[in-house]
Each structure stands twice: as structure tokens, then as C-alpha cells.
Amino acid sequence: MKDLMIRPERCMGCRSCETACAIAHSESKSLFLAIGEKPAPKKRINLEPVPDLGVSLPITCRHCKDAPCVSVCPTKAIYQDENASMISYDPNLCVDCWTCSTVCSRFTPLYHMILVMGCWTSSMNHNRKVISRQAEAGIKCDLCEGRDMPACVEACPTHALVFAEVNEV
Amino acid sequence: MKTEIDEKSIDLASQKILQKAEEEGIETAWDRYEKQLPQCSFGQLGVCCRNCNMGPCRIDPFGEGAQKGICGATADIIVARNFLRMIAAGAAAHSDHARDAVLTFKKMSEGEAGSYRIKDEAKLLSLASEYGIPSDGKSLEEIAANLADVLLQEFGKQDGHLQCTKRVPKSRLKLWAELGIEPRGIDREIVECMHRTHIGVDNDAVHILLQGLRTGISDGWGGSMIATDVQDILFGTPQPRKSTVNLGVLSRDKVNVIVHGHEPILSEMIVEAAEDPELLKLAEEKGAAGINVIGICCTGNETLMRHGIPIAGNFLQQELAVITGAVEAMVVDVQCIMPSLGELTGCYHTKFISTSPKADFPNTVRMEFHEDRAYETAKEIVRTAVENFPNRIPEKVTIPEEKQECMAGFSAEAILNALGGSPDPLIEAITGGAVRGIGAVVGCNNVKIKHNYGHVNLVKELIKNNVLVVTTGCNAIACAEAGLLLPEASEMAGDGLKAVCKALGIPPVLHMGSCVDISRILVLASAIANRLGVDISDLPAAGAAPEWMSEKAVSIGAYVVSSGVFTVLGTIPAVLGSQAVTSLLTGGLNDVVRASFAVEPDPLKAADLMLEHIDEKRKALGLN
Prior knowledge:
The structure holds 2 protein chains of 2 kinds.
Chain A: E1 2-6, H1 16-24, H2 31-34, E2 46-50, E3 55-59, H3 68-72, E4 78-80, E5 87-89, H4 99-103, H5 108-117, H6 121-137, H7 151-155, E6 161-165
Antiparallel strand pairs in A: 1-6, 2-3, 4-5
Chain B: H1 12-24, H2 29-36, H3 41-45, E1 48-49, E2 57-58, H4 75-109, H5 121-130, H6 140-156, H7 170-179, H8 186-196, H9 205-235, E3 241-245, E4 255-261, H10 264-273, H11 277-285, E5 291-296, H12 297-307, E6 311-313, H13 318-323, E7 329-332, H14 341-345, E8 351-354, E9 365-366, H15 374-388, E10 404-408, H16 412-418, H17 424-432, E11 437-441, H18 453-464, E12 467-471, H19 473-481, H20 495-504, E13 509-511, H21 518-532, E14 541-545, H22 551-562, E15 567-569, H23 579-593, E16 597-599, H24 603-620
Parallel strand pairs in B: 4-5, 4-7, 5-6, 7-8, 8-9, 11-12, 11-14, 12-13, 14-15, 15-16
Antiparallel strand pairs in B: 1-2, 3-10
């Protein structure tokens, strides 16, 4: 199945994915009209800087129904609500083992990069912030249902985001 | 996601050449536009600031992320500053053009630019008297020298205000004085824009925008107006004349020399050089039936207005002209010249010749132009084109048959002449209701709007509703291509306008020149307002720029609205990231300068907005 994949080495930090995501989830679907909408449209992708790596990462969580990250979390720091609609994260239980990221298909390339660069925790931390923020707001990445291509992928000028068969990347 | 060719332009000739480009694998502006999509949201909204090296800073338009730049600048401040910089750049472009015209004028008066002459003595004398230069007992050259000195001072003036603004109706000048936006030296306003937008200077959106209006006025009633006046003295004030437009004006058997850009200083000489017997003989030797000078963009408008030189097209047709494969030389000066022409001309035999000391492009042949040997340079350029004729590759040549007759050359003077010497007949037509109002439709092409679709449909809708249209720049060329610049086009007009056009033998759309010549529209509007004893903002008139793209257009917008003309823009300016700036420009300005902007990409709806405005003004004047 196709999924959104992140190639962090290509990210220029322009935040085009964020605005495209917000517009795709607005009433009007137009930048110029969406900025006036109340409530303001919410984005499901966040550009997070990773100071240790000197890079920025467009991070997005799909809150998968059979979320592999939940099933592998040894401390239940990542857990799913009753309807299996939202993943949540409890920082008090997290031991920074990064097992969750090793099983998240969209983060696999990122995980490899981080392994190579010898940095784990800062990136994990940011990843979890996104998960928590989305859980609080009750929103999640839906891969832009109804569109052929997620808006963030279409908007990314450097192809840091791709929409591809998971095993192809 | 490739756009279909008939979605790119409404013009058949352009469509045919776009088809040729596709077949030959040649890239055009439309292809490059597609590769830019989607365009950056921060840029589109104007909320990106790069004015200092702590940035770039961006404001999150959806309110979740950063709401201030590092220095604390809000979206309002950033948007206003960016807008001001666009006005400054646009005013700089027009005014620097004007400065060069005045410098040529000065050199001519000193006998150092032998190829130039005074072609309109009457305009020289009237301008000299306007600037307070006594002409008794002086030769024309002496008067010209004195006038040139005074005009040059307008650029660096340190005391008082610009002389040209005295042409504005008194009530408007008073309003500007009260608002503190009477322009001082032309250069000073532009420099002050740059100063104010430096980090930590002017950080109040309204205060910033007022400087934008002042800078715009220094362009419209200063730089642009000086450029128009001086060019008229040097090259003659345009009078109505017929010519032809569109890509079909390229010749199959003659040497095609295209002059493209904005300044007539060089192109005037090229027009002359193309008639030089020596070069005509050379052309014959090279197997050509003659030399065909053609214009593009505003250089084209200048040579069309003064000599009836045909025009191959407007901004978005510059690449298409080369793709015909029939252009021996693409000669450019400044402004709106696509750098892509360098690579593109390399695909054909075309020589890409850049002439301005200010402007160079990739892959050009440099033939720098200086007044003292103007004619010699022009001859060298034409010679280069002629010698290139045998290199034309016949199998690569496609010239569309589409060309259209047009009538151009309606300077303010020519319009007043056509009216019998005073604006009264036009005023009577307006007060009597035959002419509902005046629409000034100007501006560029923009790939975001189907080429010429915005221009032609807006203008057609206006004339259908009895609005007399005055036009300049790329809109004028679009109208010409659509056949709207002919007296016969009055058949497309409403009954009232049709009758007026027929009586005067004029088209319903009057070509008033290049984009610096919007100053002519201001002069005409002033003449009408003064005659009626009202302000420009009281006139049943409205402006539009349906396909604008350049910074010059932003400056034009600023001075047209400052002058009291409600103006509809067809493409969205980068201001929507600030609610405050947007609502000021589209509404609040009414309380300041009694005119404002509107944005409407649909030309028919834009025409409705203009008609609504015209009707309101008619009502206020007690006309029905």
C-alpha cells in the first residue's frame, strides 16, 4: 500500500507542506480564502527542527488503526484510545528506546539516517510532540482522503516528501 | 498535469506557436510556471521577510506557528514593507527610464547626441513655460538645455515638491498636501522607501503605505510623466496611425529585427537605420527582400505610436516570436525581458542583442548603446541582423498567418485634437449618457491568467456597456490583437459609444502608449476633471490591470489610486497575509484618497465592479 514517506536529507525547511496541508483541510481549499476561515484550518504535518542534526523534519502521524508503534512499545508510553482512532503519548513512561520508530514505515528512512548520524533522542522527542499535539487537537493525517496525492507531497518543492509503496523506498 | 494549449492563450497565433514549441521540445514560460507549482504560500501572502540577516522570517498564516518575525515584526508590518519595496522598485524602473531620456535630451541640446533632434517644438515650448523657463530670444537648443537641467533636478530635488504635480486638479493636490504625501524629489522617495523598510525603521503599516502612495505619485506624476514628455519632444508626440499586430507581422522574405523592452531611445535609431540605403543593399545581397523592424512590449508600443511599426506581441509572446524561427535579431534594452531568451535564441539562428549599459542577459551579443554614437550603434545592430539572414533555417520557420490591423497613437494631445481642441465633446457625451464613463485598462500579461483572456474580455464587456476604454502597455497590444483598436470595432460597443466613435472616426478603445504613458491617461483625466471643476475621484471612471505581474504595475496602482481612480486588479497582490493592509487597500483608502483597489480575476465580474463604480459616480454628479 502507498504511504507518505519522508526523505529528511532533502528538506529545506520551507514549510510548504504545512500550509498545503492546512489548505487541503480547509473549507474553501484556497490559500487566499482559507486564511480568513474561522476556526482556522489545522495542519497535520509539522516541520520540526532537530538542532543536534542541523536539519528540519516534516513529521506527520497517521494514527494507524493497527498501529505498530503501539504494539511494540515496551512501557505503554504510546497507547491507543478505545476506538483505536488516536495514538497518544505519555512522556513520563517513555524510556527513549526508539523501538516505535523502527517499526513505523514512514520513519524507517529517517531512523536509518539517525542511526548513521548517531543521534536518537532529540528526534524522538520531536516526533512525540507532534503525536501529542495532534491527539489533543483530535486531528490526524488522513493522506488527504479524496485526493490522488497528499497535498504536502504535491507542495514539496524538493521532493522530500514522497507518496510511494512502502517497500519501494 | 500539463495545461492544454488552448488554456494557455486565447490568441490563435500564439496557440500555433505554442504547438510548435511542444513539438520541438522547447520550453516556454508556461512550462516553467507548471514546474513552480504550487507556489510558496508565504510568498503569495507577502508574509516572508528577508530584510535582515536574522531571517528569513515567516508568519504562519493559520495562526499556529510564528506570529512575529525575530525583530517582532507582525504580518501587517512585513506585508506593508514588502509592498512598499515593490512600489519602490516599480517607481525606480519608470524613473530611471525617464532619467535616461532626459540625459539624452540634455546631450542633444549640447550637440553631443547628433542623431537626435527636437521633433516637437510646441511641446518643448509649452513644457519650458510650465517649468518657468523663459524662452525669449533663446534658441531651441538653449531652451532644451535649460529644461533638461530643471528636469534633472526633479530627480534629486531637495526643496519643494515635484513640478508635474501642479497638473493635478487643485482639490487633489490639496488632499495630498493634507495627507503629507506630496512627492518631493523622485529619487528621494525611492531611497526613503528603502530606508524605511530597513530593519527597525518604519513599523506602522499605515505610515508605510502612505509613503507607498507618495512614491507612486512621484512615479506617475513625476518620472513617468517626464519620460513621456521628453520622449515626445525628442521623437514626436504620437498621432493616430494604422499598423498591424500579432506574430503574423513577421516577414517570410525580409530580415526580421525585433525591438523589445521599454525605451524608445535606441529603437528610434533602429527604425531609421533599417531605412539606410547601405543596409538595404546589404539585405538584398544576402537574399532578403528588405528589413522588417517589429516591436514587442513597450518599446514596440513606442515605435508603433510614433512610426506605425508593427508589433509582434506582448509580454507573453516574446518567446513565441523567437520560436517562429524567423527572427534574425532580438534587440533588447530594459524591463520585462525574459532571461530565458538567451537559451531560447540558441535553439534557432536568432542573435540576441542586449544594448543597455544596465541590462545584460545570458548568451547575448553585447552592443552597448550610447547617445553620442547612437546611429552608428543602431546601424551595427541592424547590420548584424542582416548578415544573420542567410543563417535562417527554412525548415524551422513557422510564421502564423494571424495578423490584425489596428489604429494607435492616441496621445492626450491627439485625443483633444480629435475632439476639436477641447475635452468638451467627450464631456458632453458623458453627461448626455451616450458614454457611460471611462475605463483605463492597462498592465502586463501573467501566466496565472490565460494570455489575453483577462484583457480582451474585460475591455469587450466595458465597451459593450458604453464605457470608452483608454489603454496602454500589454493590454493595448492584447486589444489590438483582438481587433478592438479599429474604428470598426465600435460595432462591438453599446449604441451610445458606437455613435460617438462613428461621429469622431475613433475606435472604442484608444491606444495611449506604453506603460510610462499611463501619465497621458492622468493628464487626460485631469483635463476632464478640471473642465468639470471636480476632482479626478468624482469622475465616472475606473481603472483595471487584468493580468498585471510587474513591480512597475504596483507603483502604477499606487499612483492611479492616489490620483482618485478606483482600480480592479486581476491577479492577487502579495498582501493577503495581512488583514489590516488588505482592508486598507480595498476599502480604507477610500477615506484617505477617495479611491481604493479591488481584486477580481474574472474579467466579466471585474467589469461589473467598474460599471457599478462608474454608475455611483454618475449618480453623485447628478447624471443618469
